[in-house]
Automatic annotation (TrEMBL):
Record-given protein name: Nudix hydrolase domain-containing protein
Gene Ontology cellular component list: cytosol
Organism this protein belongs to: Glycine max (Soybean)
GO biological process, one term: dGTP catabolic process
One GO MF term: 8-oxo-7,8-dihydrodeoxyguanosine triphosphate pyrophosphatase activity
Coiled-coil regions listed: none
């Protein structure tokens, strides 16, 4: 949904999909580019973009997937993946996720 050839000066709309991959009370987190902070990523992005962020929740059956380790399939774009307890998340967080955490959002079903 991204038009990289927009030279008209008009704003672009980009859609970001964030997936909460949950295993027990842990959540899988990763980063988009190797050795790049979220602040650096935000500065790199075009200034005339607007984002719509969609959050989705995926439950991992801990009885089926006991010791499965996430694989980094794009090592040139991602530092890696790891499971974090919801109360002990890695920082910095993706901006919209940070706002949800500060707003007392809980991705875990009751």
């Amino acid at each position: 949904m991204e038009n990289k050839n927009n030279n008209s000066g008009e704003s672009e709309l980009r859609v970001v999909v964030v997936i909460f991959l949950l295993k027990g009370r842990s959540i899988l987190l990763g980063r988009c580019r190797y050795a790049e902070s979220f602040e650096e990523c935000a500065a790199r992005e075009p200034k005339k973009c607007h984002y719509v962020t969609i959050f989705m929740r995926v439950m991992v059956d801990v009885d089926v997937v006991k010791e499965q380790v996430p694989q980094n399939l794009e090592p040139t774009k991602c530092d890696g993946w790891d499971w974090y307890e919801w109360d002990h998340l890695s920082h910095p967080l993706f901006g919209p996720l940070e706002k949800m955490v500060k707003g007392a959002f809980d991705p875990f079903p009751i």
